[in-house]
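Troubleshooting: if your tokenizer reports a length mismatch, compare your output against this known-good record of 143 residues.
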Amino acid sequence: MAIQFTAHEVKVDLKEKRRLKTFLKDLFADEGQGLKDLHYVFCSDAYLLEINKQFLQHDTYTDIVTFEMGEDPDVTEGEIYISIDRVKENAQKFHVSVNQELHRVIFHGALHLCGFRDKSKTESTLMRKKEDEYLVKYFGSLE
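Known-good structure output:
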């Protein structure tokens, strides 16, 4: 099982990577989802916009795009692309630290790979609740 973090043409200050990897493995276990490989790519708005256009036919900026790459629905092999530009902007918008917003989005992508969706209001409410739950578990409280 491997979890990787890569920065593509951006700087990202991701502290305690080893602890975060362990926490993510536990998140998948807690949600009853197997985990084989997970690759996070931190990138710019422009890079993620191109991915959004090319693979999802969406011509909009977004903070995250998540891809399940494996064939077994019970074992995740995924790639998660996160726009650092969006993370920074959303941190300001929601009056939270960039670190907290970055981790929210990291957990958000993992939750998508565990089967959580956020298209409807009910789904979005549950997703936000799960994000908050994992932020509190990771940081001890919400900042």
